[in-house]
Amino acid sequence: MKETSDRAAALALFPLPPESERRLAIYAELLVKWQKTINLVAASTLPHLWMRHFADSLQVQAAAPAARLWADLGSGAGFPGLVTAIRLADDPRTKVHLIESDQRKCAFLREVSRETEAPTVIHSGRIEEALIDAPIEAVSARALAPFPKLLHYAEKFLAQGAIGVFLQGQDIASELTKDAISSRYDIALRESVTSASGRLAIVSRLNRRDIAVQHSRK
Questions:
Q1: In this structure, what CATH number is given to the domain that contains residue 65?
Q2: Which of 13, 36, 123, 159 has the CB geometry, 3.0–4.6 Å to 99, for a possible disulfide?
Q3: Which is nearest to 143 in space by CA: 52, 16, 21?
Q4: Domain hosting residue 71, numbered range
Q5: Contact partners, residue 112, CB within 8 Å, separation at least 6
């Protein structure tokens, strides 16, 4: 009953086509199966998998609805990047690059991608070493690192015009006061729809003209 109500609550927030819901159900089954041997998520979150992980991830894709070419940093068990790929799987333009250094988690990502036919490319290794030649329209991450470090990881994509969509904790506001951040990026914060303490940071790189205007106003 708990699983049913959790799933219903998630789908009430983010209604999905039947095929997307079916794919997420496959994802959920595989995650529970693999969780027995690999620590993919906190065990306490399994009864709330659809809200805590799926809906939480779906809000990332919803924040950049036009993007089809994504890079997901530190994908772990696939949140939010693999959920994005599943949500957009029926669009032939979609390609989501999942970057993860843990080999076992990469194996999990490959199996879920195969079973759900999610349009992903798995990059096994450190974020700094990932080679992605294709253009990227959006870059995502979920509670990966302190915000300044996260921006460092994402910079190569943001500098090329990608929008950043990052799930962070409520402490992010205190990190935005640093001049190096405020002078280089346009950042908008939204409250998470799944967690009162969560924040969604929407980030774009300022161009030289924007920076010049900023300095002229100081």
A1: 3.40.50.150
A2: 123
A3: 52
A4: 53-217
A5: 26, 27, 30, 31, 78, 82, 118
